[in-house]
């Protein structure tokens, strides 16, 4: 029987309201004005899924949709980007949204989460896939059964970190990271984990994303491999790390070297920062993808 080649991306699904061109940072007691507003599908799992689909990798998104009227925005964007849906409707009328405010150098977020990240029904009916990518560590901590079922089904697993101060200080976080094959925090998240004495030791590869400086990775206890990012015009950094995840995971599953996987990750991240929002409607990026050295690598 042929091994599945598709990837299942799991995590919270948001509708992102992205303000750009601010005349000053948002703060209490004052009002800031923005030149632009974009409404996009969001959440790390979705953004990674959209870039994987653009790289011509079959991909399915698993999570709960935000409540109306935001769900329609998310569903329409998923369809345009050829991301298959394995989603549950929102549990109630409370919207799951993120307000992002961005400038050329960085971005900030104000997020409202609702209910469970993933319906237990979806986890019980886990579809076949080659690999599971979890978009943020809070989802992995909330749903340890998702990791267990994926492993029993023969999937490899990757995990982004995401910023959640409470989650980054949990005593069981090291065990969660140790249960996945690839862990992909950014530099700030990795520093917070180290400050909290969390051991970063996934089964196969650790990746640390460093924004404009590129990224570095190591396999097990091996040496770090570093790849610098090309300088590109920046419009909005929202979702750049999630786009990087797509490139790295896609190449890693093809059996690429860490150098090549980092390079594809950086290329996807570079495309993301030139756009407003995590994905929007993406172009065909299959020309960037590496050719497999043999059959799909078995990790």
Report the count of strand segments: 13
Q: What is the H level of CATH, i.e. the homologous superfamily? A: Ribokinase
Principal-axes geometry comes out as globular
* Helix content, binned percent: 25-40%
Mean pLDDT: 91
| Helix/strand/pairing category | alpha/beta
Characterization of this structure:
With 299 residues, the protein is α/β, with parallel strands linked by helices. It has a single domain, classed as UDP-N-acetylmuramoyl-L-alanine:D-glutamate ligase, CATH 3.40.1190. The protein has 10 helices and 13 strands. It has helices at 44-54, 70-80, 120-124, 137-142, 144-152, 165-168, 173-178, 187-195, 240-253, 258-273, and strands at 7-10, 14-22, 34-42, 59-64, 84-88, 97-102, 107-112, 131-134, 156-160, 182-184, 205-209, 215-219, 225-227. It has a 9-stranded mixed sheet, with helices on both faces. Helix 1 (44-54) crosses helix 9.
């Amino acid at each position: 029987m042929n091994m599945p080649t598709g990837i299942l991306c799991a995590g919270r699904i948001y509708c992102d309201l992205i303000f750009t061109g601010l005349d000053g940072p948002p703060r209490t007691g004052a009002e800031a004005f923005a030149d632009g507003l974009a409404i996009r599908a969001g959440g790390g799992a979705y953004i990674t899924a959209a870039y994987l689909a653009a790289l011509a990798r079959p991909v399915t998104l698993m999570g709960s949709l935000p409540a109306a009227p935001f769900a329609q925005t998310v569903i329409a964007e998923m369809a345009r980007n050829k991301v298959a849906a394995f989603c549950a409707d929102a549990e109630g009328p409370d919207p799951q949204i993120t307000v992002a405010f961005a400038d050329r150098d960085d971005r900030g977020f104000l997020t409202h989460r609702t209910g469970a990240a993933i319906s237990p029904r979806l986890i019980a009916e886990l579809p076949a896939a080659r690999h599971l990518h979890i978009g943020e560590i809070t989802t992995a901590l909330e749903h340890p059964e998702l990791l267990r079922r994926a492993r029993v089904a023969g999937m490899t697993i990757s995990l982004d970190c995401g910023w959640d101060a409470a989650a980054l200080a949990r005593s069981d976080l090291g065990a969660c990271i140790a249960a996945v094959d690839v862990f992909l925090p950014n530099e700030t998240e990795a520093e917070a984990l180290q400050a909290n004495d969390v051991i970063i030791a996934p089964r196969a590869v650790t990746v640390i994303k460093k924004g404009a400086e590129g990224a570095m990775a190591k396999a097990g206890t091996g040496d770090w491999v570093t790849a610098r990012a090309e300088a590109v015009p920046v419009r909005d950094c929202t979702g750049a790390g999630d786009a990087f995840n797509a490139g790295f995971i896609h190449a890693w599953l093809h059996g690429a070297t860490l150098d090549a996987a980092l390079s594809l990750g950086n290329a996807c991240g570079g495309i993301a920062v030139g756009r407003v929002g995590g994905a929007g409607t993406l172009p065909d990026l299959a020309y960037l993808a590496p050719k497999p050295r043999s059959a799909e690598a078995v990790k």
